[in-house]
Task: structure prediction
Amino acid sequence: MKVLIVFAHPEARSLNGSLRDVAIRELEAQGHDVRVSDLYAEGWRSEVDRGDFPSLPIDARLGVAAASKQAFEAGTLTADVKGEIEKLLWADVLILQFPLWWFSMPAILKGWVDRVFAYGFAYGVGEHSDKRWGDRYGEGTLAGKRAMLIVTAGGWQDHYSARGINGPIDDLLFPINHGILYYPGYDVLPPFVVYQADRFDDAAFAAAAERLRMRMRTLATTSPIPYRRQNGGDYVIPSMQLRAGLESPEARGFALHLDRPDECGAADKPGVIRSTTNLRAVTA
Amino acid sequence: MKVLIVFAHPEARSLNGSLRDVAIRELEAQGHDVRVSDLYAEGWRSEVDRGDFPSLPIDARLGVAAASKQAFEAGTLTADVKGEIEKLLWADVLILQFPLWWFSMPAILKGWVDRVFAYGFAYGVGEHSDKRWGDRYGEGTLAGKRAMLIVTAGGWQDHYSARGINGPIDDLLFPINHGILYYPGYDVLPPFVVYQADRFDDAAFAAAAERLRMRMRTLATTSPIPYRRQNGGDYVIPSMQLRAGLESPEARGFALHLDRPDECGAADKPGVIRSTTNLRAVTA
Result:
């Protein structure tokens, strides 16, 4: 397979840098082709602004979605953005690797998303009408590909547990896994997360590295998080609200959008093969 | 009161720009002092890197938390970051205003958080031991001040509702409201959100502006989101998990961390005065 790692840490001699090298070595040992977008090393520009749309007239009001649509269709996005789009189309698997800063990705990686995920490429894809609300959430340009996160967190695992004060890690990552990766079509694998990243000793690193190698060996076979497909019948169109009664009685919030909330979500827990039973029951 | 608006949109002639001006005019009409950090206009730099820590030896490994702690204590953070810290200490109220891009803030605003919220200022504050896990989540440097979000979203309100496909807006904003604003001590007011931002006509704008003026007139009196205080007795120390039985039977995920989940969270819904009844019951 072809694997793209988008790496967002400013220090190569970091835990993130070491884990990235572990991942690359294991992937290459398995015969995969690996490319890396090292955002800091490459001086990635984070801010969406007029510079992204060089064909926009200088006195025109900048509407970001409209300008993105026009530039993507006309092929006038900037070279750095086009290069990343080409890599995304090349890769069978996308890995985003980053330290969790303030419960989300570092700005430079958010800027990669903001700039690369253009209108017509990652959103605004497909028919938008009263009958169909685009190709997204399980469909879209990147459907058929897989994606996963490699995340380091400074806090304790307990603090990110179901009752932990920070909120559950799977809920904190939902805006990324569901909103950024599943949205344009990726099958999203459970994230690889390490905690207490600032206190790693050799034994902790060895254990994390072995766990990561296992994940790299099972990229093709790990079951994705069973998010519900937008256009599979679970949602009312166009209000896009989940039909009543589909979820387990316990599900609330983000967990509504999992087909089998009880079996999924915990990082590193093996997923389940998504069945279409539920969809058939609804659309029948 | 003194109000700081941190504004993150690349186009002054945008809906965001117009709403910002509405807010400023209303605040000034009420006699408040208003300052604005216009991140795009000021050319804010988004990426945390070695440039943030000019006193770090050139060959030293960059550990971000350690470097941030050292630089904050020694007063060697960069001038732009120090300027923002000074504004945060000046302001009684902080408003973050931004378009929702990919279910979070634009990179430039995340970069403002990543760079300005230094160790010793916004995190790593207070005693960290087996008995106490720092001054955070309701305590900290910015305790006693208020904060709120002004957010524009392109999608429909239904898509962000309790059963909407994007996930509930209050859950999507939890990593910001709870993880970024409540963490260093702010009392966080319910967010001001407008939807279908790309389809605003004059009537929609007039209605939104009136709603925003009302929120600006009630900054001092609106009840904050009743997040639980870390050190008030609701959480086991040091695992920081919510004690059993405190939540309503319906609460799951992020909603566990609300003292009264049923009364809170919906944008623009009047909040409730937070009582300490619950804390007394637990600590008694």
